[in-house]
Amino acid sequence: MPTVAPLDLEGHVLTAAFLGDIPVFVTAAGSIHRLDGGQQVSETGSGLLTVVKDADSQTLLTGGEDGKVLRIAHDGTITELAHAPRKWITAVAAGPQGAIAYGYGKSAFVRLASGAVHQYDEERSVEGITFAPKGLRIGIARYNGVTLRFAAAEGKPVDLEWKGAHTGVSFSPDGRFLVTTMQENALHGWKLDGASSDTRHMRMTGYPAKVKSISWSNKGKWLASSGAPAAIVWPFSSKDGPMGKAPLELGTRANIMVSQVAFHPVEEVLAIGFIDGMILAVRIADGKEALLRRPGNGAITSMGWSASGKLLCFGSEAGDCGIIDISG
């Protein structure tokens, strides 16, 4: 079994990620814990609601109850990027060329590296936001669908409609597909045709619980998801994605739900975290399993691979954290 270096923190861990070679753990209370020559702690001073990694700049973006959008560097430096007093920042996203996006209430915003901010108002609350793999196209998840816009450019937005509450949104790595998580225990997807509104629906249903975690494989051939007693992995290699195809079910455990999924950065290997704190690695090609961590305290709430894929950091709702060395 791989080596596990444990770390006990207080409270719910929102994000575990590597910034460069430094593992960083962020709690909902706003504490940033870095393992950099010992444990270093920074405080954002607020309750956090959302945290994402900006892979381009190797930083974290956070949003919280105090209306601030912050950038956290690998050395613990905190930079304020936006402040909306008396608002709760419920969604953040990292884009190319230093751009970021964030949302609160019925409004989404894109902040360019220059500091210029563009506002986009929706008819319903902004629940999730993401950038396309290339360029400044954003997807805004809302009730009854997704709005696609080109940030900082004139032009009519594209509305992707599907009834229900869409809580999160993600483009495939090649930009051909868009997938949302839903309140209704399902994923929904659209096959995109360039910048036009010619799209096709993809229904991905049958989950016994809400899908709170999704992860694309490095080349976008697979989309893994939580929300069942196995990782549900949909095939996206064909031109129509998963339409008419059954998903893989990996790491099945009777009545023990998957809470987090994270694809390896290089190989088609999936890390699967469960509600009892256990973590498995499963190879897509043959379904071979490797136990990375035995059950612990609390559901796994976040996992992050190092760039080399030799280390996996994780956090739980009980503050149980650690780093797993799978290099042998």
TrEMBL record:
<dbReference type="Pfam" id="PF00400">
    <property type="entry name" value="WD40"/>
</dbReference>
<dbReference type="Pfam" id="PF12894">
    <property type="entry name" value="ANAPC4_WD40"/>
</dbReference>
<dbReference type="InterPro" id="IPR011047">
    <property type="entry name" value="Quinoprotein_ADH-like_sf"/>
</dbReference>
<protein>
    <submittedName>
        <fullName>WD40 repeat protein</fullName>
    </submittedName>
</protein>
<keyword id="KW-0677">Repeat</keyword>
<dbReference type="InterPro" id="IPR001680">
    <property type="entry name" value="WD40_rpt"/>
</dbReference>
<keyword id="KW-0966">Cell projection</keyword>
<dbReference type="InterPro" id="IPR024977">
    <property type="entry name" value="Apc4-like_WD40_dom"/>
</dbReference>
<keyword id="KW-0969">Cilium</keyword>
<feature type="domain" description="Anaphase-promoting complex subunit 4-like WD40">
    <location>
        <begin position="262"/>
        <end position="326"/>
    </location>
</feature>
<keyword id="KW-0853">WD repeat</keyword>
<dbReference type="InterPro" id="IPR015943">
    <property type="entry name" value="WD40/YVTN_repeat-like_dom_sf"/>
</dbReference>
